[in-house]
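4.2 Preliminary Data

To establish feasibility before requesting continued support, the project team ran the inverse folding procedure on a target of 819 residues. The structure was first converted into the token representation described in Section 3, and no sequence information of any kind was made available to the design step. The complete token record follows.
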């Protein structure tokens, strides 16, 4: 470092050094300006721009080197080898151009690689130029400083190129400064590395280049740099002209019309305007924008920069086309004052009309939608209130439509909806209109007529419209309609009341099981209100400890041994007293409350059973919604852990309907429950649609014969045959069978004779509370035996036997229908 500083201080002319630095800075700045154009052009032009960049940069590097050499003074005669001097210039230009071309690839490490090439080019040019330096002495080199000079040149050259590619503001200036530093640091460090030893035997001949000639050479190089910059300017101007041409091409490719005007007179238009108006571009030049092309009345209240306006464009044929126009000022060298963007509104107006139609009509059936039919209903209501008239509202719902979707798919369901809409539309009179309110629900308003007779006649026409089957992919399917009818003003004086009452009537019509039509009656409202009130009160029943479990004994026959209990839910309603499940479980199913209630029942039953003195089994019913819950196995496992009940003591009862929605998922759930050690029983066997297939798909631990078959034993031969068949099936499959609803000795004798293994019912006592069960089990009377002389209760040792036949007969005489 000391050698370099000493060389700068003692052996250089500072004025020429400043000139060399200025030349270097100007050349670097010019080179990066040209390089910016090289990066913005396609590959075919990039090579030419890279060459111009190399000329500017290489000549500047070369000029900097030799001006700095002129500033270098050793006191010895000097000259320059012309061949090597020219070679150094060519090296500087060619290698630098190659470096900028490589850096122009941009992606990956290419900018850094290009910087390395440029740095090596500077070093090669410098030391080639030093070979051209002749003096009366010998030149030797400090190897460390030579390497340092090359490293500095490469490092700052890389930094210059990389900083230019950062896309930051001022990147051209930053890159120019770094490249200037790269050139100067390499040169002056390299000069400090040169050690010149005088040698009088070496002669510098006059034929070699002297300082004056060298100055002329530098002037020529500077001129070359200026010419390169001028060439760059000319190329940039040509590029600008090409950009204008491309701009015209782009305007012709625009999806909207473009009008360029000066003081309101057209100077240019794109092809879109020509096609729309029928005039050629030349025919429109000089015309007034407003007056000749657009309606003149709009000009008085419109100025450039305003919001878009809607006006009319006059075509060559005299047609007026609706358009949207917005004008923007456009100062440019072309002399244009404003540019108008024109959009054809014909398509938009058609689209808006389509949107308005879709906003009021169902996209599938084309019928008015819920919002529009409600507007029509409000209008009819206002007319009826003003004129003292009556009208009818019919709420319709398709029967067996879900089966069509499940069997044939939703596309087939859409076909049925469209066909049903067409049939109902054809059945209407001019004073009747229909709309689709959602799914398979429709609404018909009958604005005139002698009600209720007219409404009944309309309902008959609508029902008859479904007499013919619907054809789906060559198959015929039967879809009917249920109708609920509400009349104004008898069934409501507001739209909300009439629609609500129509829905209630529809609910009654569907619940009849055969569809048809049903007029609203006041008792429907009372029933619905009661259901809704029960639904609200059921939500807090658990929190207020209003739910309680009762337990019914399950007995093995003929030994009459007690084997377990079934948990039965009761609701202690604060006003209505004790409610059976048949009164509130359907409501819980509809509202979704059955899931938390079912979890409470399972938890409570397991907790109670865990505290019994003997390990009897506890049977708990699962609803279909509970069984569809993917977390059922985890819930059961958690409850067993919390209550401490052994899994082998828990028996979960499910109905066949719980398996129908997704058989594979249902089987997976059953297997996970079985893996916990829990028993699975099929409840209400024989009442479903696929009992045998269900038994085949999953090996149940128990089959429960539904009470409706047991109740008819002794009165109905078919019921007896069904019970025998189920018992035989269970025996063949080695699955225990339990008969529910045993209430008489005759039923018990029949089941015992047919080898039924297990029974439960009122014959053995009514369902009892948990406290009563705990007290009974603790007393020691825990087993029931059926002996020849009647029903007896015995303790575990069998020493105490008391006849309860009379008590049982009394219980049977006082039994009720509540299970």
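Position-by-position output of the design step:
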């Amino acid at each position: 470092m000391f050698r370099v500083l000493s060389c700068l201080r003692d052996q250089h002319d500072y004025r020429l050094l400043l000139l060399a630095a200025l030349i270097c800075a100007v050349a670097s700045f010019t080179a990066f300006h040209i390089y910016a154009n090289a990066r913005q052009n396609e590959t075919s032009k990039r090579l030419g721009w890279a060459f111009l960049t190399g000329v500017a940069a290489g000549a500047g590097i070369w000029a900097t080197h030799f001006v700095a050499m002129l500033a270098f003074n050793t006191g010895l005669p000097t000259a320059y080898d012309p061949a090597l001097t020219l070679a150094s210039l060519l090296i500087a230009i060619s290698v630098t151009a190659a470096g900028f071309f490589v850096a122009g690839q941009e992606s990956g490490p290419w900018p850094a690689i290009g910087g390395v090439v440029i740095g090596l080019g500077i070093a090669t040019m410098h030391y080639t130029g030093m070979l051209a330096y002749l003096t009366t002495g010998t030149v030797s080199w400090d190897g460390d400083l030579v390497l340092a000079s090359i490293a500095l040149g490469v490092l700052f050259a890389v930094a210059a190129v990389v900083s230019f590619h950062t896309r930051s503001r001022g990147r051209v200036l930053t890159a120019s400064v770094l490249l200037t530093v790269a050139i100067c640091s390499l040169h002056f460090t390299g000069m400090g590395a040169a050690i010149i030893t005088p040698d009088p035997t070496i002669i510098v001949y006059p034929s070699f280049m002297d300082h004056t000639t060298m100055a002329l050479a530098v002037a020529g190089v500077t001129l070359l740099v200026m010419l390169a910059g001028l060439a760059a300017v000319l190329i940039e101007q040509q590029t600008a002209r090409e950009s204008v041409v491309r701009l015209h091409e782009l305007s012709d490719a625009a999806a909207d019309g473009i009008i360029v005007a000066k003081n309101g007179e057209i100077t240019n238009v794109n092809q879109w305007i020509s096609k729309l108006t029928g005039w050629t571009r030349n025919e429109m030049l000089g015309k007034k924008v407003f007056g000749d092309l657009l309606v003149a009345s709009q000009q008085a209240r419109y100025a450039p920069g305003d919001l878009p306006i809607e006006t009319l464009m006059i075509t060559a044929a005299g047609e007026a086309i609706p358009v949207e126009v917005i004008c923007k000022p456009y100062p440019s060298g072309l002399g244009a004052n404003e540019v108008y963007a024109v959009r054809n509104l014909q398509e938009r107006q058609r689209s808006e009309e389509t949107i308005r139609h879709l906003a009021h009509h169902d996209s599938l059936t084309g019928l008015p939608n819920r919002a529009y039919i409600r507007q029509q209903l409000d209008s009819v209501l206002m007319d009826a209130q003003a004129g003292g008239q009556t009208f009818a509202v019919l709420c319709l719902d398709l029967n067996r439509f879900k089966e069509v979707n499940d069997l044939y798919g939703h596309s087939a369901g859409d076909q049925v909806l469209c066909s049903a809409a067409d049939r109902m539309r054809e059945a209407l009179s001019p004073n009747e209109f229909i709309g689709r309110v959602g799914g398979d629900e429709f609404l018909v308003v009958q604005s005139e007529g002698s009600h209720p007779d007219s409404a009944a006649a309309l309902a008959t026409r609508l029902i008859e419209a479904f007499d013919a089957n619907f054809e789906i992919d060559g198959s015929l399917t039967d879809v009917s309609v249920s109708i609920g009818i509400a009349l104004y003003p008898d069934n409501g004086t507001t739209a909300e009341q009439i629609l609500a009452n129509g829905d209630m009537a529809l609910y009654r019509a569907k619940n009849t099981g055969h569809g048809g039509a049903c007029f609203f009656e006041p008792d429907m409202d009372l029933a619905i209100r009661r259901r809704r009130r029960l639904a609200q009160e059921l939500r807090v029943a658990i929190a207020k400890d209003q739910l309680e479990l009762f337990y019914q004994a399950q007995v093995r026959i003929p030994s009459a041994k007690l084997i377990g209990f079934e948990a039965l839910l009761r609701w202690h309603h604060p006003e209505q007293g004790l409610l059976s499940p048949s009164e509130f479980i359907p409501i819980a199913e509809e509202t979704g409350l059955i899931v938390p209630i079912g979890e409470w029942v399972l938890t409570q039953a397991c907790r109670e059973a865990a505290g019994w003195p003997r390990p009897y089994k506890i049977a708990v019913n699962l609803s279909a919604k509970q069984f569809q819950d993917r977390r059922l196995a985890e819930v059961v496992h958690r409850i067993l852990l919390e209550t401490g009940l052994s899994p082998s003591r828990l028996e979960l009862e499910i109905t066949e309907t719980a398996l129908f929605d997704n058989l594979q998922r249902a089987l997976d759930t059953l297997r996970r429950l079985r893996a916990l050690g829990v028993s699975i029983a099929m409840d209400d066997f024989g009442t479903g649609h696929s009992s045998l297939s269900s038994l085949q798909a999953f090996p149940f631990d128990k089959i429960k014969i539904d009470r409706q078959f047991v109740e008819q034993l002794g009165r109905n031969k078919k019921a007896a045959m069904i019970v025998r068949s189920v018992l035989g099936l269970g025996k063949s499959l080695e699955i225990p069978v339990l008969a529910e609803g045993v209430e008489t000795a005759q039923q018990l004798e029949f089941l015992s004779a047919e080898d039924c293994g297990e029974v439960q019912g009122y014959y053995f006592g009514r369902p009892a509370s948990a406290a009563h069960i705990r007290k009974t089990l603790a007393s020691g009377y825990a087993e029931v035996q059926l002996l020849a002389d009647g029903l007896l209760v015995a303790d575990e040792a069998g020493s105490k036997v008391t006849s309860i036949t009379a008590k049982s007969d009394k219980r049977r005489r006082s039994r009720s229908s509540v299970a």
